[in-house]
Amino acid sequence: MNQERTYHSNYAIHPGSTLEDELNYLGISQVELAARSGLTKKHINEIINKKASISPETALKFEKVLGLKASFWLAYQRNYDEATARIEADSHLEKEIKLLPEFKETFKELTRIGVLPAIQWKKSSFSDIVSALLSFFGTVSLSLVQDSNLSAAYRKYNGKNINHNNIAAWLRLGQLKAQRTETLEFNEKQLKKRLEEIKALSTLDEPLKFLPRIEKILADCGVVLVCAPYLKKTYTQGATQWVKTDKAFIILKTTNQSADKFWFNLFHEIGHILKHGSSKTFIDLEDKHDSKEEQEADLFAGNLLLPEFDEALHNKKLSRAEIEKVAKKYKVSNSIIAGRLSYESKNYQYYNKFIQKLDYQNVV
Predict the structure, then answer these.
(1) Residues in CB range of 38: below 8 A, 6 or more apart
(2) DSSP single-letter state for residue 50
(3) Among 120, 162, 195, 269, which is most exposed with the fewest C-beta within 10 angstroms?
C-alpha cells in the first residue's frame, strides 16, 4: 500500500482502526501478526478494539512486519491522544460554562478590584472567563471552589443574601498574597513579644504610616497581613488561615472600614493564631461571635486593646478633647476609644465623627 497516509486532526480516530484495515488489505490475521511481531494476540486485539495504544516499541515491530514506518503509527497515536484530550477538554469546558452563572457576581467583583481582566460577560467570552476563574482559584473545576476554600469553621451569617463564592474569592485573595510574600518562620514567642509594638502604631494618623509597618512586624513573626477590599454580599471582616505549618495569613477588610473595627479585627485574628492552632480556618463575618473560639478571640482583642477599661465612661458623652485624653492614657488611637464608647453607649451617630476611616489595600 501507499505509505503516504493522512490522519485526521479534528476527530479522535484510534490507530487500531487503521491497523485492522491494513491487516485486511494485506490478508494477515491477528494471529499471524502476533506470531511475526512477537506481540500477543490479546495485545493486538486490544489495539484494534481501541483498548490499548501503540508504543514506540510496538510501532517499530509494525514497521518491520507491515512495512509502514514507525513514525506513521506514532503520529497516528499522537493525533488520537491529542484529539481525545481536546474532546475531553471541550466537554469539561461545557460543564464549567454551565456553572458560570453562579460566579457572575464573583467575576464582576474580581474585575472591579483589578484582580481579573475586565472581559465582557457574553457567550463568546465564557470560555475565557472560565479559564480566568479557574486560574484565580487554582482549581480544575468551579464545582470545587467552595469545597476547597469554604471547608473552614466560619460563623453563619443571619442574612439570607450571602454569596459563598464571593467569600471563597475573598479568602483566595489572602492565599495568593500569602504565597508570594516572604516571611520568617512562624514564631509564637516573637509575636507575643511584639503585640504592644503593634498596638502602639494605632496612635499614628495615616494608614500609609502604620499599615506597612504592621505588615513588616507580622512578616518577621511568620504572619502575612493581607489588606483586602470588601466584596459584595460577603459581610466579611477578617479571616485567618495557615498556608504552611510555619506561615499563616490574616486577611482584613480595609476599604471603607472604620479604624476601630480594623484594630479590633486585627487582634481578634491574631488571637486565633495564638490560641487556636494551625488546623482551622476562621472566617469572621458581621454578626455576633457565638462560638467558644470566637468569644476567646474577642476577649483577647478587647483585653489587649483596652485592658481594665473604665466602665464609668460608657454612659458619658465625651468630647473630642476628652476622648484624646482617654486615648493617651491607654496608648491607643482616638478611634479605638470612640469605637468602644459608641459600642457600649449605642450612641453611634455621635461618636462616628471621631472615628477615622480606612481605605487601603495590598492584594493587587
Answers:
(1) 61
(2) T
(3) 120
User: What mean pLDDT is predicted for residues 187-193?
Assistant: 97
Sequential DSSP letters for 51-111: SS---HHHHHHHHHHH---HHHHHHHHHHHHHHHHHHHHHHHHHHHHHHGGGGHHHHHHHH
- The helix (H) or strand (E) run that includes residue 148 is helix 145-149
What mean pLDDT comes out for the span 243-272? 95
Query: Out of 30-44, 137-151, 313-327, 340-354, which region has the weakest mean confidence (pLDDT)?
Result: 137-151
Q: By three-state DSSP, how is residue 196 classified?
A: helix
- Domain with residues 15-98, CATH architecture: Orthogonal Bundle (1.10)
Compute how many other C-beta atoms are within 10 angstroms of the C-beta atom of residue 129.
22
Of 341, 302, 303, 294, give the one whose Cα is nearest residue 319: 341
Q: Name the DSSP letter for residue 29.
A: -
Q: Is 226 helix (H, G, I), strand (E, B) or coil?
A: strand
Residues 263/331, Cβ–Cβ less than 8 Å: no
DSSP 3-state of 17: helix
* pLDDT (tens digit per residue) in 105-150: 999 999 999 999 999 999 999 999 999 999 999 999 999 997 655 5
Domain-wise residue ranges, the chain = 15-98, 150-359
Q: Quick one: DSSP state of residue 202?
A: G
